[in-house]
Write a structure and sequence with these properties.
heterodimer; A: 328 residues; alpha/beta; Rossmann fold; 14 strands; 34% helix; 20% strand; B: 362 residues; 2 domains; 7 strands; globular
């Protein structure tokens, strides 16, 4: 496939298109995913290309959408469903936590659920209340769910293809604010494995560990830090669950210092889990406590105030500065 | 003895007292509201329409983050509040700004959510208007709770709970109806069926004969009205409120109307519907028919028209003046309201932000 300049939204659309063409059992449904093509246009053109049996609108009921997907997955299909916005997925929480996550275990592995729950998430788009939540920690906390989130156009394509092929249910978190940024990519050239993180940038002084919407901010911070004489490694988790201890810990051991960057609130979150793991596994390699740059522990603010909530380059650089560079 | 069907099922056709040509029903199933009431309604409709137009204009100018317009649905919006008393409650959705404004809430405070400087701009207790709900149907069980509490306290409050056609598919809608019926809570569930949930037409939303039919499964009487006929809406909603107040339990009303404009300014309705579908609804406009009726049946003189126009001009100016300046936001507020007593962690985070901002200024 030739190099083309496309957005993450287009890459996700292409991944759905290719997955549906490759496997008849893949079906896509949710709210407004048919004629409209989804409010973010991720399903644009799928109904026209594959027909209403393969990509269709449902009544407006998230628990119903996820619950029906469970039944279809039990009966041989590979459903991909869309929760229109992060916070609009909460009505489906019981289905996800009590059934999607537990089906394999409760049936001693007899029933598999190869389904994908796509969730546009995070802020940075000026959304009003309930349109900008980072809900990944709820899902990551739930045993039985696989949770992935792309940070690049190429990963968006590759991870979604992998998620659809995956034997177990995947919560696929799509960072809304990265939907429209375009990159020159060769889709399918290098396909990420679910459960493997990637080092986006090498640097000897400290490691930034980020995922989803925080990755571009971490990379920008690393670039600024380099100009100021400090070389930072940036690890992009790609998968929150399964967690790639190996890649993360190797980077931290090499650099001896680490900052976790996440857009979600910090308390009892994915970011706190990362700090705990890194501290447990790399304690003797650490020259300073692992720091975090996260959102405040408050509901996601209204549009005019969201800039105060999102991790910024300055906050990351301040945290890096704080990593006890000199013995006092 | 009436049968269950007679008691609980809606009328065969939506109640319409003044048709789209301004002609009154010759054998009305409900009494036509008094002329003074209709004149008041007319004035409010003109104001509501101008509110919708001005808010949409302010979105185009970047003064509002988003505006889900109720253009064409103003009769529903106005009627929902005209039938309430001062002590009653209104539970609105994000599309019900005109209803909120018509209840007496300051128009700028009404639009705070959509401007984006806070999640809700008004004091819910001042006019007994709950915060606008963006997640669908989630406000309905709250409405039942407010109504049930009022009954427990011996108050004769009625709660007007608004929801759209799409919202009737959510579990919360069904749980709210069931609870309200079991506890005989004085709630009027008012569905504004505008035919669309963003892009999904009603035919793909529900296979019920009408949304008002959904009441029978819960033992809640259903009724339906032409959502563009203010007179019919006032009659039907008025009776429902009266029944709820008299201890007859919850009522379910469906208004048949139409979302003339896109879901919001961020939506492109041409992707899922033809203009030809919209056109007939413009002929059923709620204002035109009331103007025709009142002009021919007395009352709508130049003085009334002029007063209504002045009101409309005033509300438009109020929105422009109030929304044109960039709102002042106070970052410290982000931490101020989470708990009755702020936690140590939030105090630390507030101090962090304060320090960061003071360094930026320096």
């Amino acid at each position: 496939m030739a190099h083309t300049k496309i957005s993450m939204a287009q890459a996700l659309n292409q991944a759905l298109r290719d997955a549906m063409a490759a496997d008849e059992s893949v079906v896509m449904f949710g709210e407004d995913v048919g004629a409209l093509g989804g409010v973010f246009r991720i399903t644009d053109g799928l109904t026209a290309e594959f027909g209403e049996k393969r990509c269709f609108d449902t009544p407006l009921a998230e628990a119903g959408i996820v619950g029906m997907a469970v039944g279809m997955a039990m009966n041989g299909m590979r459903p991909v469903v869309e929760m229109q916005f992060d916070a609009f997925g909460y009505p489906a929480f019981e289905q996800i936590v009590s059934h999607v996550a537990k089906m394999r275990n409760r049936t001693r592995g007899r029933v598999q659920l190869p389904m994908v729950i796509r969730i546009p998430y995070g802020g940075g788009i000026g959304g009003v209340e309930h349109h900008s939540d980072s809900s990944e920690s709820y899902f990551a906390h739930t045993p039985g769910l696989t949770v992935v989130t792309p940070a690049t156009v190429e990963d968006a394509y590759g991870l979604l293809r992998k998620a659809i092929e995956f034997p177990d249910p995947v919560v696929f978190m799509e960072p809304k604010k990265l939907y429209w940024a375009k990159e020159e990519v060769d889709l399918g050239e290098s396909v990420p494995e679910i459960g493997r993180a990637v080092v986006r940038r090498e640097g000897a002084d400290a490691t930034l560990i980020a995922y989803g919407p925080a990755v571009p901010v971490a990379l920008e911070a690393a670039q600024v830090a380099a100009a100021e004489g400090r070389q930072l490694t940036v690890v992009d988790l790609r998968s929150v669950v399964p967690f790639d201890d190996e890649t993360v810990c190797a980077a931290v051991r090499r650099t001896g210092r680490a900052v976790v960057v996440a857009e979600a609130s910090g308390f009892a979150s994915v970011s706190s889990e990362i700090v705990a793991r890194v501290t447990e596994k790399c304690f003797h390699s650490l020259a300073a406590p692992v720091r975090r740059v996260t959102a405040f522990d408050i509901p996601f603010p209204p549009p005019k105030l969201e800039k105060y909530q999102l991790p910024s380059v300055d906050r990351i650089l301040d945290a890096v500065d704080d990593l006890q560079w000199e013995d006092s | 003895m009436t049968t269950v069907e007679e008691r609980l099922l809606p009328s065969a056709e939506p109640v319409c007292l003044i048709d789209q040509y301004g002609v009154p029903h010759d054998n009305p199933p409900y009494e036509l509201p008094a002329r003074e009431t209709l004149l008041d309604g007319y004035t409010q409709l003109i104001k509501g329409r101008r509110f919708n137009e001005q808010a949409s204009a302010l979105v185009r100018q970047g003064r509002l983050a988003v505006y889900p317009s109720s253009f064409g649905q103003e009769a529903c919006q106005i009627a929902a509040t005209m039938v309430l008393r001062e002590g009653d409650w209104l539970f609105p959705t994000y599309r019900d700004s005109v209803s909120i404004m018509s209840r007496g809430v300051d128009p700028i405070e009404t639009l705070t959510l959509l401007r984006g400087d806070w999640h809700s701009g008004y004091d819910p207790y001042e006019h007994k208007v709950a915060p606008q709900s963006t997640p669908l149907a989630t406000q309905l069980p709250h409405a039942v709770g407010v109504a049930h509490a009022a009954r427990l306290k011996g108050e004769d409050t009625v709660v007007m709970a608004l929801v759209g056609d799409g919202g009737t598919s959510e579990g919360d809608f069904h749980e709210a109806l069931n609870f309200a019926a079991v506890f005989q809570a004085p709630v009027v569930f008012f569905i504004q069926n505008n035919e669309y949930a963003i892009s999904v037409p009603l035919a793909k939303q529900s296979a019920a004969p009408s949304l008002a039919h959904k009441g029978i499964g819960y033992g809640v009487p259903g009724e339906r009205a032409d959502g563009n006929d203010l007179a019919g809406l006032l009659a039907v909603l008025g009776r429902a409120v009266e029944k709820a107040r008299n201890g007859e339990g919850p009522q379910l009303i469906e208004a048949h109307t139409y979302r003339v404009q896109a879901h919001t300014n961020a939506d492109d309705a041409t992707r899922y519907r033809e203009d030809a579908e919209v056109a007939p609804w413009l002929d059923r406009d709620p204002i035109d028919r009331l103007v025709k009726y009142l002009s021919e049946n007395g009352g709508l003189d130049d003085a009334v028209r002029q007063r209504a126009e002045e009101n409309a001009v005033r509300i438009a100016a109020q929105l422009r003046d109030g929304l044109m300046p960039e709102p002042e936001v106070e970052p410290a507020e982000l931490f101020a309201y989470l708990y009755a007593e702020q936690t140590q962690q939030l105090r630390e985070q507030a101090a962090f932000l304060r320090d960061e901002l003071s360094r930026e200024e320096a």
